[in-house]
């Protein structure tokens, strides 16, 4: 069986605010850790039937990029939900909401 590892490194300032986030994967073609501005990690805990989450972003991430990050994350969640469940109707509703979100947040597609 193949095993892959994903590593996230978060450098914090004196107030525990993320200053730098790096990620790397043993499956990646890149052999060095790459900088990112934000990440959202969701894990399903089957034993407790709930979601464990970590949402972090660097203190210098621009608000317009955070808006775009949320928009793209919502779109990707729709893709994932469709592949996992086949629920086309609700994903169409989510796509409609994503379009509304993009319009309200003035996100250029």
What does this entry show, briefly?
With 109 residues, this protein is of the alpha+beta class. It has two helices and five strands; from the N terminus they run βββββαα. Strands 1-2-3 form a three-stranded antiparallel β-sheet, with no helix packed on it. Strands 4-5 form a two-stranded antiparallel sheet.
List keywords for this structure.
alpha+beta, 3-stranded antiparallel beta sheet, 37% helix
The separation of the N and C termini measures 40 Å
Please state how the strands of the largest beta sheet are arranged side by side. Answer: 1-2-3
Q: Mind telling me the C-alpha Rg?
A: 17 Å
Strand content: 25-35%
Estimated structural class: alpha+beta
Task: Please outline the helices and strands.
Elements: E1 6-12, E2 18-25, E3 34-36, E4 38-45, E5 50-57, H1 63-85, H2 88-104
Helix pairs in contact: 1-2
Provide an overview of this structure.
The chain has helices at 63-85, 88-104, and strands spanning 6-12, 18-25, 34-36, 38-45, 50-57. It is globular and about 45 Å long. By secondary structure, the protein is α+β, with helices and mostly antiparallel strands. Helix 1 (63-85) runs antiparallel to helix 2. The strands form two sheets. It has a three-stranded antiparallel sheet with strand order 1-2-3, with no helix packed on it. It starts with 5 loop residues before the first strand and ends in a 5-residue tail after the last helix. It has two helices and five strands; from the N terminus they run E-E-E-E-E-H-H.
């Amino acid at each position: 069986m193949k095993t892959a590892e994903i590593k996230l490194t978060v450098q914090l300032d004196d107030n525990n605010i993320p200053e730098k986030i790096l990620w790397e994967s043993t499956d990646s073609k890149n052999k060095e850790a790459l900088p990112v501005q934000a990440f959202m990690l969701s894990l399903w805990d089957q034993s407790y039937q709930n979601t464990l989450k970590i949402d972090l972003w660097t203190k210098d991430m621009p608000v317009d990029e955070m808006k775009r990050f949320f928009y793209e994350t919502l779109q990707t969640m729709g893709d994932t939900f469709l592949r996992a469940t086949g629920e086309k109707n609700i994903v169409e509703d989510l796509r409609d909401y994503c379009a509304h979100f993009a319009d309200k947040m003035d996100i250029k597609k």
